[in-house]
Amino acid sequence: xxxxxxxxxxxxxxxxxxxxxxxxxxxxxxxxxxxxxxxxxxxxxxxxxxxxxxxxxxxxxxxxxxxxxxxxxxxxxxxxxxxxxxxxxxxxxxxxxxxxxxxxxxxxxxxxxxxxxxxxxxxxxxxxxxxxxxxxxxxxxxxxxxxxxxxxxxxxxxxxxxxxxxxxxxxxxxxxxxxxxxxxxxxxxxxxxxxxxxxxxxxxxxxxxxxxxxxxxxxxxxxxxxxxxxxxxxxxxxxxxxxxxxxxxxxxxxxxxx
Length: 258
What we know:
The protein has eleven helices and six strands. The chain is α+β, with helices and mostly antiparallel strands and 258 residues long. A hairpin with a 4-residue loop joins strand 5 and strand 6.
């Protein structure tokens, strides 16, 4: 997908009122300016949507960038679970898929620096016959979202670490409850344990909306980062680039009035 960019037009000087001091032209945005302006709070906020699945290895690889985005002033990130490995996308683990996943995991590790442990390879990928289903993790994250949406990114990181570093089975409800409690999300753990109709409806609606965005924008996989209104998808590799370059790929921020 070709990424659109907002036009960059420098303001003109007022040359008619020659008896007034002429203000120097405002410097155009440079790549290195964007992060500083956002972090200093001198730009209008940037709203992003992050399409993901909690059992997606590439989404785990993008986790450091997501963490930096969600903790940067002036950036608002909405997490949108896509249900990639849930419902019709769920499947039993077999030798072929385990080998396929591990080969991709090694590529992700080299590109992102994220760890894929031996415990993960043996206990998770080696659990032949066990169902690969992101529905329970998506439900747990929705419980966190219902308590406090700002906590969801941290909860996602906790679930990813439990799977890819500690080698725990995050398709199991009991394991996910432990992960949420350990990460300090006890209220969400209780909500997840109850699993009432409100939680189910909220999860189904979030997945429906995320899948609608994917269809509308022609997005074939995750992770994906959307910006702008109407939304547009950034290039697929944007989440694995230098952070300053990523900010330059976003819709260019406009300085707030002095």
